[in-house]
Write a structure and sequence with these properties.
Blueprint: E1 3-9, H1 17-26, E2 31-36, H2 46-54, E3 60-63, H3 66-69, H4 73-86, E4 89-92, E5 97-98, H5 102-135, H6 148-157, H7 163-170, H8 174-182
Parallel strand pairs: 1-2, 1-3, 3-4
Antiparallel strand pairs: 4-5
Amino acid sequence: MRVYAYTRVSTLDQSTDMQHAAIKAKYPDAIFWEEKTSGTTRKGRVQLEGALKSIQEGDKLVVWKLDRLARDLNDLTNIVKELETKGAALEILDQAIDTSTAAGKAFLQMLGVFAEFETNLRKERQLEGIKNAKEAGKHLGRKPSLTDEQKQAIKGEREALNPTQLAKKYGVSRATIYNVLNG
């Protein structure tokens, strides 16, 4: 049996050192596949695909935490099915899950459902926060280039100054001036 270890961090300035140490402590001879990329999708994760292609019957894929492998229930399910088809197993150290056992398979499926549920709750909270901010009249996005008073002044000065002169006077682009004049 060979052990393939997969470690992942989301950004280039993060380190996989803690993941490596945890996996090496249990599997000192593990073959490591490491990448620095988002885990929100399986697309573009070259090292994960390489590990999955290398795994054969009786082998095991080991990750430190579930979210290092997948953050989407469909991706997780597909990875587990791919491993099962090859006769290989998945072990998640932090949660002590090993899909070579029936209990490990069941627990992993439950964790996957709860992980996706948490992601959906987070999205709902974000949308609710945006909706509440809009209702409270809070401006979302970039700060406006011009105040309402400046916009009124620009409209009043359109006869005396051309758009290029207005743009220079107010420190904005000509496109912003045209938007004010045509709005």
